[in-house]
Amino acid sequence: xxxxxxxxxxxxxxxxxxxxxxxxxxxxxxxxxxxxxxxxxxxxxxxxxxxxxxxxxxxxxxxxxxxxxxxxxxxxxxxxxxxxxxxxxxxxxxxxxxxxxxxxxxxxxxxxxxxxxxxxxxxxxxxxxxxxxxxxxxxxxxxxxxxxxxxxx
Amino acid sequence: xxxxxxxxxxxxxxxxxxxxxxxxxxxxxxxxxxxxxxxxxxxxxxxxxxxxxxxxxxxxxxxxxxxxxxxxxxxxxxxxxxxxxxxxxxxxxxxxxxxxxxxxxxxxxxxxxxxxxxxxxxxxxxxxxxxxxxxxxxxxxxxxxxxxxxxxx
DNA sequence: GATGTCACCGAACGTTGTTCGGCAGAGCGT
DNA sequence: ACGCTCTGCCGAACAACGTTCGGTGACATC
Lengths: 153, 153
Description:
The structure is a homodimer. By secondary structure, chain A is α+β, with helices and mostly antiparallel strands. Helices cover 37% and strands 29% of the residues of chain A. In chain A, strand 3 (92-98) and strand 4 form a beta hairpin. The radius of gyration of chain A is 20 Å and the shape is elongated. At the A-B interface, helix 1, strand 1, strand 3, strand 4 and strand 5 of A face helix 1, strand 1, strand 3, strand 4 and strand 5 of B.
C-alpha cells in the first residue's frame, strides 16, 4: 500500500468507470503497470468491488430510516439469526451490528411512509427475539464516496 | 425506467467495471443501445456515479462508530453549519440529518479506539452548538451494494 | 395508407484492455 | 567489487472494446 496504490484507489473511488489508461496517466505510470497494481489490490482485498450509486427514488426508496433494534437473549445464535433475517429483507440496505444500548441499527428504504410503516409492523415486529425498536426518519444522507485514507501512526 | 433500464442498473450495481458489451449481452440488447440507455440514466440522475468499495482497514479506518448528535438551537443556520462541518471532517464517512430524538447521526471511521476518542474529544465536542452526543461502536457493517428496486404501487 | 417519430440495430473506426518479453535497479551473498 | 536473483516497471502487439452514425422496423397520428 504505497503512494502509487493510494493514488489508484483514490481514482477508482472517485470514478470507477474511467479507463485504465486514464488512471495510469493521472497517477503517472504505464497502463500495464496500473492494471497489474489494480489486479493486486483486488486480490489482496483492498478493493472489494465496484458499484453504481443509484438515486434511491429510482428504486422506489424515497423514504429512508434508521431503525435501532434490541434483541434478547444476546446469544450468538440469536444475533446471527436476526442479522441474516434483516439482511435478507429487500427494504433493508445496510445492517450495523452494534455495541452499546442498541444491538442493531438497520438502514431501511421504502416507497413512502405508509410502506415504511407496513414494513415495521408486518415484517420487523413479527420477530420474537426483538424486545424493542426505535425508528428515525432520515431527512438527508450525505455520503462520502471517496473517503481519504487517514494518516497512520 | 422500464425493464431494460432496471436490468442495466442492476448490472452496474453488481459490477460497475464490467464492459458495456458484457452488460448489453446480459440484458439482451445491442452494445450501442445499452450505451445510449446508460448515458440517459446518467443524465436523468438515476445513476449518480460509480465508486470502488475499499476495505476500511486499508484506509486506516479499522474502528467505526455511529455518533448520535443533538444540536441547539434547531435553526436552519445551525443545522446547515453543523452538517457542513461534520461532512468536512476526514474521519466522517457519512452524515444523516434525522427526524426524532437525534438531530444527526454521523458515521465515523478511525484507526483505533484511541484515535476515535481523540476525534470525539478534540473535534466534535469543540462545537458549541452540540448539546449532547452518544457514540456506539460498530462491530459489523453488512452493506447491500446492489439493493433491488422495490415494487411500486 | 402516407407520414413522422422513436427505439433499436449493426458496421466502422479509433481507442482500450491485456499479455508478454525485456530492462533497470535493489538486495544479497561471496 | 562482482555476479546473481528478484522485483517492478515499461512498451509493443493483438484482440477486444467504446462510440458514432446511417439505416430499419414498429407504432401512432392524421
